[in-house]
Design brief:
By secondary structure, this protein is of the alpha+beta class. It has helices at about 10-15, 20-25, 35-40, 105, 110-125; strands at about 5, 15-20, 45-50, 60-70, 75, 80-85, 95-100, 130-140, 165, 180, 190-195, 205-210.
Length: about 220
C-alpha cells in the first residue's frame, strides 16, 4: 500500500481523495503479471516531453484521449493527440501540446481497459453522468545524479478536470516521489508515496485520485 501522511480530517479526504492498491481494487489482487511486465516495458519507448519551459529532459510522455460510456462500459478511442490545459491552471506549461499517441499494445489492451473502466465507472457515478472524456498521460520522470526529476515543475496546481487519477506502474533507484494534495487555499490535505512495485508480485501497484475542476479549450 502507498505510504500516506494525513494533514486533514478524514471526512474531507473521504469525499474527495482516495489512495489505495490498484491491483486489489481493479483485479482483486489477481492481475496478469505477464501483461503488467509487457506494459511496463513500453515506458522504455516514451519520448522526451518537448514542452518543458525550463529546457529539462527529465519528463517523457505519450498521450491519448478516450470517451467512456457508462451504459455498456464502452471505451471509445478518439485518436486525438493534442492536449489542452488552460494557463489559468498551469501558468508554466499551459496551452496546447501535441504528443505521440500511446502505443496500441497498451492503449487497446485488456490491462488498461480494466483499469479505465473501473475508475471511469466510479467517477461517472459520482458525477451522475453517462459519458466521460478521459485524458490519458503515460509519463516517466527521470532523475540523475545531481539532477532531480520534477513531476510537476509548475508547483502546486489544478489539472482542470473533474477527477485526477495517478497510477504507478514502476519506480527504480529512486528516493522521494511523494505526491501532495492540497485544498483550494493550498493547505496540504494528504501526502502519498507509492511503493516500489515488486518484480515478483503485481499487488503493489499504487493508485490515488482527487477531485478538482475542469477547464475547456477555447472554441474555434
Amino acid at each position: 500500500m502507498p505510504a500516506t501522511r494525513n494533514f486533514a480530517d478524514g471526512s474531507v479526504l473521504g469525499r474527495s481523495v482516495w489512495v489505495g492498491n490498484c491491483a486489489d481494487a481493479v483485479f482483486g489482487g489477481a492481475v496478469d503479471r505477464s501483461a503488467l511486465d509487457d506494459a511496463r516495458a513500453l515506458w522504455d519507448r516514451l519520448e522526451v516531453d518537448p514542452y518543458l519551459h525550463d529546457g529539462g529532459s527529465y519528463r517523457q510522455r505519450r498521450y491519448a484521449e478516450l470517451a467512456y460510456e457508462r451504459e455498456g462500459e464502452r471505451l471509445i478511442h478518439t485518436g486525438r493527440q493534442v492536449f489542452f490545459q488552460s494557463a489559468d491552471y498551469n501558468r508554466v506549461n499551459g496551452g496546447q501540446r501535441q504528443f505521440s499517441l500511446i502505443e496500441a499494445q497498451f492503449l487497446e489492451g485488456p490491462l488498461l481497459a480494466a483499469i479505465l473502466r473501473h475508475f471511469a465507472a466510479r467517477f461517472a457515478d459520482e458525477l451522475g453522468v453517462q459519458r466521460l472524456e478521459l485524458y490519458l498521460h503515460q509519463v516517466r520522470i527521470v532523475g540523475r545524479p545531481g539532477v532531480s526529476g520534477r513531476p510537476t515543475p509548475e508547483g502546486i496546481h489544478k489539472d482542470g478536470v473533474d477527477f485526477s487519477c495517478q497510477i504507478l506502474f514502476g519506480r527504480n533507484n529512486v528516493h522521494g516521489g511523494e505526491s501532495l494534495i492540497y485544498d483550494n487555499e493550498q493547505v496540504p490535505l494528504l501526502g502519498a508515496t507509492m511503493p516500489t512495485p515488486s518484480t515478483s508480485t503485481a499487488s503493489e501497484i499504487g493508485t490515488s485520485f482527487t477531485r478538482s475542476r475542469r477547464s475547456r479549450p477555447p472554441t474555434e
